Amino acid sequence: MVISNKPLRFLVAILVACLPLFSTANPVVDSTKVEVVAEGHEGAVAHEGAHAEPKDVKTEIKEFINHHLLDSHSFNFNANKETGEHYGFSLPIILWDNGLQVFSSAEFHHGPVADVAEHNGNFYKLHHEKIYKTDAKGTLTEAHGHPTNVQPLDLSITKSVVGILFVAILMLVLFSSLAKSYAKNGGIAKGAGRFFEPLVIYVRDEIAIPNIGEKGYKKYMSYLLTIFFFIFFLNILGLTPFGFNVTGNIAITFSLAILTYLITTFTANKNYWAHIFWMPGVPTPMKFILAPIELLGTIIKPFSLMIRLYANILAGHVVLMSIIGLMFIFKSWIGSTLSFGLAFALSILEILVAFLQAYIFTMLSALYFGAGNEEHHHEEAHH
Fold first, then answer.
1. Pairing with 254, which of 5, 47, 142, 378 sits 20 to 30 Å away (CA)?
2. 224 or 347: whose pLDDT is higher?
3. Residue 305 phi, psi dihedral angles, 5° rounding
């Protein structure tokens, strides 16, 4: 007798959809006893003295969201409000300050003063996930609401870096095994490769070839596949309970956009540059006016790539956590149930957005590569 696996698939789908709810619900906000909360599962416990000014629930939720969106120098899952105890593991702090300074991020939480670490006679304070040089008391001099203390060059292994390294290793293992399975099984994928092979073919047949062309698409395939799966895996990782927000970091999306811009710029043919600086079929005086505009357009294109990915992922995290926070504001079974239902529906949508944003970034990159390698025989014939 064959037992249908549809119920199992349904349960797996429900579990996957609930992952973002678990990731945002780790630090519970106590609405009956309001005090300063350890600052999110980013792990920075903010204690500016033995007693802190009480905060209402909305303020706590807002602070938690803000700290969730920041990168972190430690990997923490939860924090105890009463004792300041947090669970997780520390990450290495690597600073350039009159030489290389290397120590554990645990020093910020186990010293005599909260968030102040001492190393080689230097004192450093962790403030909103930025490291400042300070004195033994952790004094920060502020101007216009921002610290003016010296910031050493921070080369630390942060949570985002851990996420990037994890995805890089995962991709290396997955696609190396996929390539080996082709060689061993006569071009037939085995194991996990069976799931990813259709996506590889989709990127080739539906993104690369239509936008770049049969003639020149192959030299861009390695980058397009890498960027597609890199963004997709990082987006999915951001929906897990580990609290990653890599693609919601504008520095990451900026770096990815710069890569697309550099590849487009250095692989473009002469026709691409001719249409930017000396457009055929346009009156000569207009060419001097349009050339700077066209050149600016080459910069605006990667800028739009950067903003689109960053804004969509960031907005999804903010909205989802805000809806979760409504449960602690309503404090009723009706309001909390509605909030949970809405958050659950949004979690499913976020999975779709994770794939969609990877697709859009890859498709637009392929479109720019195609524009840079387009041939214009019709204009040569016209002249």
1. 142
2. 224
3. -60, -45
8 A C-beta contact, residue 235 and residue 317: no
Banded model confidence at residue 146, pLDDT cuts 50, 70, 90: confident
Distance of alpha carbon 13 from alpha carbon 43, whole angstroms? 30
- Residue 378: predicted pLDDT: 47
User: What sign does the CA torsion over 126, 128, 130, 132 have?
Assistant: negative
> And the tokens for 6?
């549809």
Type of residue numbered 104: S
- Residue percentage of the chain with pLDDT more than 70: 80
Q: Please state, in angstroms and as integers, the Cα–Cα distance from residue 141 to each residue in 146, 148, 229, 292, following that order.
A: 8, 6, 44, 44
**Which amino acid, one-letter code, is at 339?**
S
Residue 128: CB atoms within 10 Å = 14
Residues 100-104: contacts with CB within 8 Å, 24+ apart? 101/152
Compute the distance between CA of residue 220 and CA of residue 362 in angstroms, rounded to an integer: 11
Between CA 219 and CA 204 the distance in angstroms is 12
Pairing of strands 153-154, 146-147: unpaired
Q: Does residue 31 surpass a pLDDT of 70?
A: no
Among 327, 320, 356, residue whose Cα is nearest residue 240? 320
